[in-house]
Amino acid sequence: xxxxxxxxxxxxxxxxxxxxxxxxxxxxxxxxxxxxxxxxxxxxxxxxxxxxxxxxxxxxxxxx
Length: 64
Known about the structure:
Blueprint: E1 4-5, E2 10-11, E3 17-20, H1 30-46, E4 54-57, E5 60-63
Antiparallel strand pairs: 1-2, 3-5, 4-5
């Protein structure tokens, strides 16, 4: 997206969000990870948002 300019400022916001699985159980299998990536692409197309990186481990998801 790049830097956004306003009247008196310029900004570039980045957010790091972590979604843990309930009770930190290792439930994120490769098929579920592929589905999460596909849903993220659909969200990017629908809304004005860009996911820089999406990472999964067995028990949590990272979005940047």
